[in-house]
Amino acid sequence: MKKILLFSILSFSSITSFAQMKEDIKMFPKPENGQVQKVIRVEPRENENDYMVEIFVGKKTTVDACNNHFLLGKVEAKDLQGWGYTYYDFTSDGNIAGTLKACIDNKQVEKVVYAQSEKLRYNSRLPIVIYTPEGYEVNYRIWSASTEVKTAE
Known about the structure:
This protein is mainly β. Helix content is 14%, strand content 43%. A hairpin with a 4-residue loop joins strand 4 and strand 5. The longest helix is centred in the first third of the chain and has 22 residues, at 2-23.
């Protein structure tokens, strides 16, 4: 009986949190044709001003193994009219650039090639909503400030 009750509570809480997750993005525009909407939600933390979210938009492709490659594209912040929220639109034609070292073995590898990353304010109360062309992925990492404060000389 206890197992059934525990399962019921866990199921209800996961359904509730899923519904809340859908609720916090309903005001954002639907993706246009050929676009997808990606959403990042970060955990609440003490002193959120001491953190930042760095987002990376990338595309899986085959490139040579010896050069450094990057995706040509940009992230543009847009205002959600009437709400005061910001969402992000990544645009790219899919072109990839890189260094021009001569690759002796000409070995090809499949990897995700990223565009210039973007650092955003950490805010656990609002999701980070990003629109990308289909076939692109969005990754992120959390940056934190040191607690040590130094004085300039």
